[in-house]
């Protein structure tokens, strides 16, 4: 995985709710839903071999605003790094595996299949995003080339107008 070297914000994982951006309709508790809050995931026990993990926000051009989890000692060689959305997906798989046996009537398999279908769709969307990023980069290169050609044409035209009359 690529590492991120710049971050806009750094928040201890224990203080961060990975579900902050989900709408309240995902909440199973009606009283909480009416207040617009949702059940929080406890991050207090999340550590890497070096210590407590921290949440950061990417400021790179490739992933602007994308949140990630990393060891606070990453400069000292700890390579723990994970995008928040990947982390949330892994957490979902973990919970599905543990609650599947408790779901009656074979519905656990249905839930697991639905989550897998979402994962496949997510992979497809990620591939589409990568293709669009490549296309965008190609278009930026073309635009830059055309701008350079335009500026050079204006300079040549201006030079011909100034020096062509003498």
Automatic annotation (TrEMBL):
**What is the top-level taxon of the source organism?**
Eukaryota
Q: Which Pfam families match?
A: Zn_ribbon_GRF
PROSITE patterns associated with the record: ZF_GRF (PS51999)
Q: What InterPro entries does this protein map onto?
A: Znf_GRF (IPR010666)
**Which keywords does this chain's UniProt record carry?**
Membrane, Metal-binding, Transmembrane, Transmembrane helix, Zinc, Zinc-finger
Metal-binding among the record's keywords?
yes
Compositionally biased, Polar residues: which spans?
Answer: 1-12, 22-31
Residues annotated as domain GRF-type: 48-87
- Tell me one GO molecular function of this protein: zinc ion binding
- PANTHER family named in the record: OS05G0489500 PROTEIN, OS07G0190500 PROTEIN
Q: In its UniProt entry, what is this protein called?
A: GRF-type domain-containing protein
Organism per entry: Crotalaria pallida (Smooth rattlebox)
């Amino acid at each position: 995985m690529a590492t991120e070297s710049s971050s806009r914000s750094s928040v201890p994982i224990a203080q961060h709710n990975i579900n902050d951006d989900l709408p309240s309709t995902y909440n199973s508790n009606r009283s909480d839903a009416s207040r617009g809050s949702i059940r929080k995931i406890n991050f207090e026990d999340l550590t890497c071999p070096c210590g407590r993990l921290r949440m950061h926000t990417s400021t790179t051009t490739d992933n602007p605003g994308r949140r990630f989890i990393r060891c606070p000692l990453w400069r000292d060689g700890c390579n723990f790094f994970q995008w928040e959305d990947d982390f949330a997906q892994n957490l979902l798989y973990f919970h599905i595996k543990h609650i599947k046996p408790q779901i009656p009537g074979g519905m656990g398999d249905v839930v697991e299949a639905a989550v897998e279908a979402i994962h496949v769709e997510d992979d497809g969307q990620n591939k589409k995003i990568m293709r669009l990023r490549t296309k965008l980069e190609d278009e930026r290169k073309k635009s830059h080339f055309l701008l350079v050609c335009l500026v050079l044409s204006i300079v040549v035209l201006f030079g011909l107008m100034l020096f062509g009359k003498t």
